[in-house]
Write a structure and sequence with these properties.
The chain is mainly β. The chain is 0% helix and 48% strand. The protein contains no helices and seven strands. The termini are close together.
């Protein structure tokens, strides 16, 4: 589903990310992805987070989601990068879809 999107998707406005200290993740890069269902009906979400280096090049990607999220509710899955911990990486939400 996400791979076929030409744009960022229909749910980018429903997504925020918050970094997780590497001391709490065993040294891995990670972000909490807060998904807020701003719609009127229960929906499911898929979110792609790219971990980019300081030049903006994508080093790793992770996909997280939430199923059957009631209207107005939130889910907070965690997206992890498998890239080496010694790299400086910046997380970016590149695609998010509500279905």
């Amino acid at each position: 589903m996400l791979a076929t999107l030409d744009t960022g998707g229909n749910a980018l406005g429903d997504i925020t990310i918050t970094g997780v200290p590497r001391a709490r993740t065993g040294g891995l890069h990670a972000v909490v992805v807060t998904i807020t269902n701003s719609g009127l009906d229960t929906a499911s979400y898929a979110v792609q987070v790219d971990f980019t280096d300081t030049s903006g090049k994508t080093v790793d990607s992770a996909v997280v989601g939430a199923e059957h999220l009631p209207a107005g509710d939130q889910a907070q899955p965690v997206a992890f990068s498998r890239a080496p911990a010694d790299q400086t990486l910046l997380p970016v939400v590149v695609k998010a879809v509500r279905f």
